[in-house]
From TrEMBL:
SMART domains: ARM. It comes from Adineta steineri. Residues 1-35, 55-78, 90-210 are annotated as: Disordered. Residues 19-28, 136-168 have a biased composition (Polar residues). Transmembrane segments: none annotated. InterPro entries: ARM-like (IPR011989), ARM-type_fold (IPR016024), Armadillo (IPR000225), ARMC2 (IPR038905). One of its GO terms (biological process) is cilium organization. Residues 1-11, 178-194 have a biased composition (Low complexity). This is Armadillo repeat-containing protein 2.
Length: 874
């Protein structure tokens, strides 16, 4: 009969990797003096891939949470109505048209253009007294009047005064504007000759040119008719004529001709309509002015302020949905070069964008137009003013609505790829870095809302992780804005997401010497605040405490939820930080921090079940680290007694499950095992099949407890062996891991191995082994360990020979060994990385155990066959 492997049943590289006990028979192998918890990571893991290490640390996990409840802010406003500073920062400039003697520099931008559509079918608004027409500069003649009357009347009768729904005019193109030359030159080149020729033309050119004839015979009569409609409050007629006028100007390519003085006269007329309270009038004034590419600071400010006023009323959304005014607006903003001179215009534009993006239809429309390049340019230009104190307030007035709009655009998943752009992420983190004063609360909250949305997606989250400046900015916000619950809860939610998804984020954040102190102080402050809040009668009456705004009428409940939501998010950051061993060891040595978690557990009636579960999950991650300086280890008895109270409360089953998980870590210590076995609560739970999560966690704790022989004796008296074998038929993989661990430890003792024979335990283990081959090499390895302990007997003793296998069982085992002990039989997939991992697990976890078990069975079987021949011969 062969000797068993020396030292251990496993390879030296993975010596007893799962921490299960093996036989204590010193003749056959050396027992471990201090066996680990069966799920603990062994010391010799240097050569194991990160994936395997991660699997071994399965008890360390991200705390489930929800994004802070943030309904879209549907309020609309104008910039002046939202100013947080003196209104004189915004000019009380004249609404009169400023002459634009020279065309401004223009930067063409490619946008997806949207054809305009007539809106004359909109019901005419109630007529109001016409406001003053300021400085109308029209030169009319009898010929112009007659032409105007005949043109408009004919067009009105023929139905051409509105834009047909079938024929939408295209957007005005960006035309090349001719240069203005101050004086003639004697140069003889052809270019100079042409320029001299243009400059030599006298003022009579306007009256004789084809362009002027168009103005005289077609455009001017329409303008006169437009004025008449305005004066008589005939807004339906005003709408019709405006559409005809727009199409005529577009048809003759007159929008880009800035040097024509008729253009200036018409714009003066349009600006005279700005004071009208009628939205239809304002829309046409704005649309025509944008099409004419107004460029002076005052003109831009007036027109974009008109558009902002329109956007502040949701009843005007059809203007933006059905026409090309958004395209014109984007093109206009792309041509602004002097950022300081046009800060007010930019502020009005940003507010317009914010107002429009509260409408889902408009979010989709604006998203289709790809506005992010324009917005990045605006952000880049605004950043240049950060150090200029005189512009700081107006800079904020631009950034608040702009970030509000970006937050609304982030709700559309089609835009997520746009937020992956490093430049945009950089602009947003720049805002957090330089705008952290208390007066900037709205701005920081907007950026936090954007990131809280985006960091739910791994790709966006990892982009933010790479931004080194954000960590310090988030800490700074938590320090300076501790009382701003809406901001704090979002920043902690963002940090929790980052820490959950990236080891680099966890390590980088904790490199700041103030990181843990800041989180501890924040947690302490909100626990203190929570103790002062009047608690509702039923803390868990609603589904969740994850809402941070009023959603019910009970103000006490809302305040309670809001505070607990912050506490939840802070604890989640701590819990996720602890996934990194370096961080975990730092946190567990912080008495002030861990004591706050104990404090919450000591008052279960003062907190919701959600918060208690999150505290227990954090302690599960933190108690994973067995360090003598740990506050948890030094106070393990106190914590164990608290946890026993939780697992006795079946009304809060989520707490029961998490309490078991923490106890699983604590039960590595003998004094904790004594406490648990005295209360006998574990056996109670493993009998309750209706609460399978608790059954799984209870068996995990028993896996640690059963390393001691006196505990194993107690478990056998409670018939835990039969319960474990019964659960071997479960389809719950986590439960199979746990119960096989208990069986491995029980069968260390020779007097307890018979349970596997009498209760069909061996058949169950063989079934698990057969099922797990090729699908789960770690589970297959555990099954082999249990079988190894079962047959770890001196079969020369007659009493032990009954613990051998039947011929059918041996045939199945040998067949399975033939299939699984050859590397060439490993199944392959299209995923090379997955195949490599599968091969690694086979080499590290399965083969060392299964190959030695196979050899043992071969040797022992020869012994039994030899005895059988001897007996037959006798």
């Amino acid at each position: 009969m062969s000797n068993s492997p020396s030292g251990s049943t496993h390879s030296s590289g993975r010596d007893n990797p799962s921490g299960y006990l093996t036989s204590t028979n010193t003749n056959r192998r050396n027992s471990r003096e201090s066996p680990m918890a069966f799920y603990e990571v062994p010391q010799s893991i240097a050569n194991i891939p990160t994936k395997i290490i991660s699997d071994a640390k399965q008890s360390l996990r991200d705390m489930p949470t929800t994004r802070p409840y943030t309904p879209r802010n549907d309020s609309r406003y104008t910039t002046l109505s939202k100013l947080n500073h003196e209104p004189n920062f915004f000019s009380a400039s004249s609404i009169d048209y400023d002459s634009e003697s020279r065309p401004s520099s223009s930067r063409p931008i490619e946008t997806k253009r949207r054809n305009s559509k007539g809106i004359s079918d909109i019901a005419a608004p109630v007529a109001i007294p016409p406001p003053r027409l300021s400085k109308l500069n029209h030169q009319t003649s009898q010929e112009q009047t007659r032409s105007s009357d005949s043109t408009v009347s004919n067009q009105t009768r023929s139905g051409d005064t509105t834009v047909s729904s079938q024929t939408k005019p295209p957007l005005p193109a960006n035309h090349q504007r001719s240069s203005t030359i101050s004086s003639a030159s004697s140069n003889t080149s052809s270019t100079t000759s042409k320029s001299s020729h243009r400059n030599s033309i006298t003022t009579t050119k306007d009256e004789s040119s084809d362009e002027n004839l168009i103005w005289k015979n077609e455009i001017s009569p329409l303008i006169e008719k437009l004025i008449t409609a305005y004066k008589t409050n005939d807004y339906q007629q005003f709408d019709q004529i405006s559409n005809v006028l727009y199409n005529a100007l577009l048809k003759h390519n007159l929008f880009g001709k800035k040097n024509n003085k008729k253009r200036g006269e018409f714009l003066k007329t349009l600006f005279g309509f700005i004071e009208s309270d009628n939205s239809l009038v304002k829309f046409h004034v704005a649309r025509l002015s944008l099409a004419f590419q107004v460029s002076s600071t005052n003109n831009l400010r007036n027109i974009i302020r008109v558009i902002e006023k329109l956007s502040s009323n949701k009843d005007n959304d059809h203007f933006f949905l059905q026409t090309n005014i958004i395209d014109l607006l984007f093109e206009t903003m792309s041509r602004i070069d002097d950022i300081q001179q046009n800060l007010e215009s930019i502020a009005y534009f940003c507010t317009t964008l914010k107002n429009l993006t509260v409408n889902n239809e408009l979010i989709c429309l604006i998203s289709e137009k790809k506005p992010f390049e324009l917005l990045k340019i605006i952000l880049k230009n605004l950043r240049q003013l950060k150090d200029q104190a005189e512009h700081r307030d107006r800079l904020r007035d631009c950034l608040v609505p702009l970030t509000d709009a970006l937050r609304n655009l982030a709700e559309n998943d089609l835009n997520r790829s746009e937020f992956l752009d490093d430049e945009l992420i950089d602009h947003l983190t720049f805002i957090l870095k330089y705008f952290t004063d208390k007066s900037h609360g709205d701005l920081m909250t907007n950026v936090a809302r954007i990131f809280s949305k985006l960091t739910q997606h791994t790709d966006c989250c990892l982009k933010l992780v790479q931004c080194s400046s954000c960590y310090r900015s988030f800490l700074k916000i938590l320090v300076k804005h501790e009382s701003n619950q809406a901001l704090v809860v979002r920043v902690c939610f963002i940090l929790g997401n980052m820490m959950a998804k990236s080891e680099d984020a966890r390590l980088t954040f904790m490199k700041d010497s103030h990181a843990l102190k800041t989180l501890t102080k924040l947690l302490h402050s909100y626990i203190q605040l929570d103790s002062l809040v009047l608690k509702p009668e039923n803390l868990d009456n609603d589904d969740s405490t994850s809402h941070d705004v009023d959603i019910v009428d009970d103000s006490n409940l809302n305040q309670f939820r809001s505070i607990e939501n912050v506490i939840n998010k802070v604890i989640r950051v701590l819990s996720n930080l602890a996934i990194s061993q370096e961080n975990g060891l730092i946190i567990i040595r912080s008495d002030d921090c861990i004591d706050l978690l104990f404090k919450i557990l000591k008052a279960p009636n003062q907190h919701s079940e959600e918060l208690l579960v999150h505290v227990l999950m954090a302690l599960n991650n933190l108690s994973y680290y067995d360090d003598p300086q740990s506050y948890i280890i030094r106070n393990a008895e106190t914590l164990a007694q608290l946890l026993v109270k939780y697992i006795r409360n079946e009304e809060k089953m989520d707490c029961v499950v998490e309490a078991f998980r923490v106890l699983g870590n604590l039960s590595r210590a003998k004094r904790i095992r004594d406490i648990l076995m005295k209360c006998k609560v574990l056996v109670k739970y493993i009998r309750n099949e209706e609460k399978m999560d608790c059954v799984v966690e209870a068996f995990r704790v028993l896996g640690n407890l059963s390393r001691a022989k006196r505990i194993r004796d107690i478990l056998m008296k409670c018939k835990v062996d039969r319960l474990a074998i019964h659960h071997c038929r479960s389809e719950n993989i986590e439960l199979l891991y746990a119960v096989i661990g208990v069986l491995i430890n029980l069968t260390v003792d020779e007097d307890k191995r018979e349970c596997l024979k009498n209760s069909d335990g061996i058949d169950s283990l063989i079934a698990i082994y057969e099922y797990s081959i090729q699908t789960d090499w770690q589970l297959a390895s555990l099954a082999c360990k249990a079988v190894w302990n079962y047959c770890d007997n001196n079969y020369e003793k007659t009493d032990n020979q009954s613990l051998w296998f039947t011929k059918e069982q041996l045939n199945i085992l040998f067949t399975l060994f033939d299939e699984s002990l050859h590397e060439s039989n490993l199944e392959s997939t299209d995923d090379k990385e997955l195949d490599e991992l599968n091969k690694q697990l086979w080499n590290e976890e399965y083969y060392p155990v299964a190959s030695r078990l196979y050899q043992r069975l071969v040797d022992e079987n020869k012994y039994f066959q030899s005895n059988e021949k001897t007996n037959n011969h006798a």
